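Entry:
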Amino acid sequence: MDQKTIDTLRLKKISPQGNLIDGKFSPSISGEFIEVISPIDGKKLTSIPRSRNEDVDQAIKSAKVAFDDGSWSLRAPLDRKKVLIKWANLVEKEALELAVLGVRDNGTEINMALKAESLSAANTLRYYGEAIDKVYGEVAPTADGILGLIKREPVGVVGAIVPWNFPLMIGAWKIAPALAAGNSVVLKPAETASLSLLRLAQLGLEAGLPPGVLQVLTGYGAEVGEAIALSNQIDVLSFTGSGATGRKLMEYSARSNLKRVYLELGGKSPNIVFSDAPNLELAARTAVNAMFRNSGQVCVAGSRLLVESSISKIFLDMLCKFTKELKVGDPLTIKNDIGAVHSEVQLKKNLNILKNDIEGKVILGGERINIGDGGFYMSPTIVNNVDTNSEIFQNEIFGPILSVSTFKSDKEAISMANNTSYGLAAGVWTSSLSRAHRMAEKIKAGMVTVNTYAGTDLTVPMPGMKESGNGSDKSLHALNKYTNLKTQWIML
């Protein structure tokens, strides 16, 4: 990756985009469109279709026809594997161009986008491609003369709704296992981050996906997302986003065909540093990255830093030092560590929270910066001595705002960690093996890491507890969401 290549790619003109329905890209039926504004400079990039109910109906009908004709669903797992791996290779070959396209759309710093978006998507497609012909059914321990078979079958048509912060990574987490299992997919990207997923789908067609197996519809969540969720022809819905939207999707399921709804609804994750942490400097650097990468717009961000009081001063000094070293600016400039906040709306939300909730406790940052660039940038912000009942401690902000609180005992640390409605991720820093296990057991989070933060890979799931959702992205467990169990009880 070199700056000259990136600068060339950033100037590439992006034509108006179309929905992908039945293997072809086309405008919405109404002809309406949505302007795509880049958070880098606040200027228009291109336009995408504003889809509505009739577009959703057409896409779902095509997906169901594709599923029922068996061109994908009845194909041998080995053959589906070949397509997914070819797709992964195409994505990997175009990784930098895909990453730059995504950065222009959502503002993630290029160093992170290359690894966490395009290369991550390629790895995910390859992982599920390699896995699908190695997943077996079961034979039940029955009496003589009876054969009990337990099989997994594809559910049919899967609806997938993904957010704007990591569209390729999260999109692949949903698309890859659903397609590997033999389903058809109707994908709805965020209206402010659709471009890279549209290109990903095009590469899927080039790899050999049959027409109709993967549909991509752009548009507003209240229009496209709602229509997908209310459809009686969608068999499973997988969503990553806000809790408020997740609740609506569950209501839509109840109002329609009781489709299974899997939700990843974000978090307010604690990162807990004990005085016996094996390396305080590493813990501080990791805490900075765990919060401020992608301008804090990460569902597993370690947004609540809990520090043992005996080391709070020295640790806070290190934290501020490493945060000050971060370079914030144009996300397509390699030397910058942090890119743009995704939208002006999100930026104003972040700044209003600081104004209303924690005045006087900001010890670093808290300002809009680089205003002359026309984009949406905010300085990494640290807030000290945060009240555990405050909004910044309790609610997901999705911005570069780190809250710092102190504790004196293991019991208090556990109580503070669990004092939120979320339960997605957590980090624990300690040299004590027994403490590490105790904390991991007691913290109510789907993913707990020790002496690192959120450093997992595809081999393990990312489940949520409490209001962080249900089901799991990643690992072989994700296949459970997109398959139905079937028992065959045969008298021989």
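The first strand starts at residue 19 and ends at 21.
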